[in-house]
Amino acid sequence: MPLSTSQASFTSERSKSVETNVIRPTRFKDLQFTKKPLHIPYSEFEPYKADIRKRVETSRISGLDGLLMIHIMSGQGLKSSKTTLRDLYCVVAVDSVNKARTMIRTGAINFDWDEAFDVDLEDSKEVSFLIYHWDPNYKHRLCFHGSVLLPGYVQSGHKKYVAIKMEPKGILFLTLLYKEPSISLQRLPSVRKNGLFGVELETIIKRESTGLCAPCIPIIVQKCIEEVERRGLETIGIYRLCGSARRKAMLREAFEKNAKAVDLSPENISDIHVITGVLKDYLRELPEPLFTNALYQMLMDALSVRLPGDPEGSATLMLSVLECLPQANQETMTKVLNHLKRVAANSDKNKMTLDNLAICFGPVLLCPSPITSNEAALDFKKHIEVLKYLLEIWDENSSSSKYLSIIKFFNI
After folding, report:
1. Mean pLDDT over residues 385-408, rounded?
2. How far apart are CA 232 and CA 243, in angstroms?
3. How is this protein annotated for GO cellular component (predicted)?
4. Domains in the chain, start-ordered, CATH in brackets?
5. Other Cβ atoms closer than 10 A to 307
6. In terms of DSSP H, where are the helices of 346-397?
7. Is residue 218 within 8 Å of residue 205, measured between CB atoms?
8. Cα separation of 107 and 88, whole Å?
């Protein structure tokens, strides 16, 4: 079956962007052969194959926003014309945009990946699974592909056990759990006595403060941003690609126990996407968005009254709204916006333009709490538009940044 244009371009892009932190196949041969076969509850799975009728129906309805939790369990019947062992990995793409990649597994027919990812959705309609042959000496080759059309198939809060018919042969067993924005952006407060995620920003700042001149920025934000700027600014798809959900959970727990002691060096956390995922989780789970509930409508209004003939006045109005933020929010916001501008400055290498970064961070930084499903659906695109505009007018030497440095100096 010939590949579509999007799949062909994806193949080309993927072969150019193989990460340097891929673990050598020989190591996975040892791991694969010593571990027990993955237990798969076959009776719970339903067969799925995207056909032309489903594609036509999906094209007529809106895509999904929110979060899609994907657990890639096993690929079976992935036969080759040769009987030799192969090293395969699976790439997850949403509407032809790379989102995640499994580790390499070695086998002949069956491959147990057993990896999970939390993938952000923004008006998304199709999730594709592309299985590549890893070869250290040659261009990686797309061997198998399959996809699931999301609208009308997944329902929020209901896990689907899916057996996807792959092309040209084989079956991919995985689970899908969709969470609509009213769930994925609930901003529930932490139930842990001395928690980190889901705890008010001011509380974290006071707990971590070591002196009068200490920055009003949570340690987790400082550490994650510094590590990304140290080794991730040129990484293709930074903040768009997601790391292993299992490794992300382990890093989250380490931050919960002792943020100061967390080591984010490549020797300890090899996948930079795990770090970016933890940072986004932290900002997403703040009980109140970084831009606060109080200023939410003011930001929306400032965006709506922009005058094409007065770009300077429009920018001044938007930046003046930010000056109403509490000090902890101002300093953390400045750190985040400065960082995103540095990421975008490397977009020729990392492919993350202001548009792409606004999609990744808009709802995370702006979505108010609490929200209803209808509110989220109406404002999701506005969150993206507001953040994109802020990034366009933001400068590390802007009047807003200078103002923040002054109030920090006087400890106002």
Report:
1. 73
2. 13
3. synaptic membrane
4. 5-179 (2.60.40.150), 184-409 (1.10.555.10)
5. 10
6. 347-350, 354-366, 373-393
7. yes
8. 8
